[in-house]
Amino acid sequence: MPIFEYLLVNKKKETVSSTIEAADKLSAINNLRSRGQLIKIEEKGAKKAA
User: Fold this and answer.
1) Domain locations along the chain
2) In sequence order, what E strands does the chain have?
């Protein structure tokens, strides 16, 4: 699955930057919406299979 790097402002008005693994960009966005106001998201690549 692809890994996306994101930047958002959470409910405490703090800026958070991290990564999330999701099937696609839309799935990542939908998952992140509950965490705060999404500012930026971009695909960074896919997780390597174990």
Assistant:
1) 2-45
2) 2-10, 15-21, 36-46
